[in-house]
Structures are given as structure tokens and as C-alpha cells.
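Inverse folding, one chain.
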């Protein structure tokens, strides 16, 4: 099943041209969300990257994390907590814990936050996201988890493009590498 999922992820992905005046290619993951096999397999596939872990909650950043995080949480039989980006919407009307994210793959700094009451000192957190290019966003989520006294058991991503030292530091494991999508 894992190799079938990887093959479907590769088949459902494409690079698109950002338009005239640039040689930038943009990742198009829309084929993943259109494929029911991928949607069915992502939760168990990402959860399976950490067979030795016993998370109590899955934590994922918006936007794509709000789609795949619950799939992984369901596969593990645990709950899900959203991580919000500051400035994307109106403030949430309850206590939040925030962490600054170093420059991401675009060079932008961000602030990520969670509802403080949803992560406790007894939680074992699996961080889930679609893509890790620099590890900056995962690092920010790990900081949030540590601030709240919980333990991070790893970071599961669909695509891992991080440098090996960064992936080791943040416990990042992916279903695919960037080279798989070249």
C-alpha cells in the first residue's frame, strides 16, 4: 500500500509555470486532493512513518495541515489541534500561545499560534504538514509544543526536502523527497 500511495502522490503532482518574466515553478498538489485513493491512504501513510510513536494528539499548521492533520489523527485514533498563522484572519477570542517562525522557504517570517488550552504537559504531539523545505514551520510548531510543556514525537510530511541535519533535528520523515517530484 505504501508504494501505491507514493506512486499516486507522484502521479497527482505537477510543477506549473508562474508566468511570464519568471523561471519560477510552483507546486500544484491539487491532484492529491482529487484522488480518493490518496485521501484514504494519507492518514495511515503519514501515521505509519512513526510506528514506534504513541502520540496523544496531531498538530498541523494551516492551510493544508487542516486537511491532512485530521486524516492522520483519525488513523491514529487521537485528536487534532490547529496551528494558526497570525494575520490571516480575525483574532481568536481565547488565550493563544504564539511562536515566531524563522524565515520560511519564501524568506517570510511568520507567527504561529495554538489555543493554549488544547495542548497539555502530558501530550505527545505528532506534527503533520504537507511539505518541509527548510524546516522553519516545523521548528515553529515544535517551539509552541515545548512552550506548552508537551513532547514532540516527530514530524510527518508528504514531501521532505530538508537538509539531513534539519530533518534529524526535527524528526522529519516524509513519504516522498523533493527528488521524487523532479
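Residues assigned per position:
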Amino acid at each position: 500500500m505504501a508504494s501505491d500511495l507514493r506512486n499516486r502522490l507522484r502521479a497527482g503532482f505537477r510543477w506549473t509555470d508562474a508566468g511570464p518574466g519568471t523561471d519560477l515553478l510552483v507546486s500544484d498538489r491539487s491532484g492529491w486532493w482529487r484522488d480518493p485513493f490518496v485521501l484514504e491512504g494519507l492518514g495511515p501513510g503519514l501515521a505509519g512513518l512513526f510506528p514506534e510513536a504513541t502520540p496523544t494528539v496531531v498538530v498541523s499548521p494551516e492551510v493544508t495541515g487542516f486537511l491532512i492533520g485530521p486524516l492522520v489523527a483519525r488513523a491514529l485514533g487521537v485528536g487534532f489541534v490547529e496551528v494558526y498563522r497570525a494575520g490571516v484572519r480575525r483574532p481568536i477570542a481565547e488565550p493563544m500561545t504564539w511562536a515566531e517562525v524563522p524565515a520560511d522557504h519564501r524568506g517570510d517570517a511568520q507567527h504561529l499560534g495554538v489555543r493554549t488550552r488544547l495542548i497539555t504537559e502530558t501530550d505527545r504531539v505528532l506534527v503533520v504538514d504537507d511539505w518541509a523545505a527548510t524546516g522553519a514551520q516545523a521548528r515553529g510548531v515544535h517551539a509552541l509544543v515545548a512552550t506548552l510543556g508537551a513532547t514532540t514525537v516527530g514530524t510527518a510530511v508528504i514531501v521532505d526536502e530538508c537538509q539531513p541535519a534539519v530533518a534529524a533535528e526535527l524528526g522529519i520523515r516524509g513519504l516522498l523527497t523533493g527528488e521524487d517530484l523532479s
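The first helix runs from residue 2 to 11. The radius of gyration is 16 Å.
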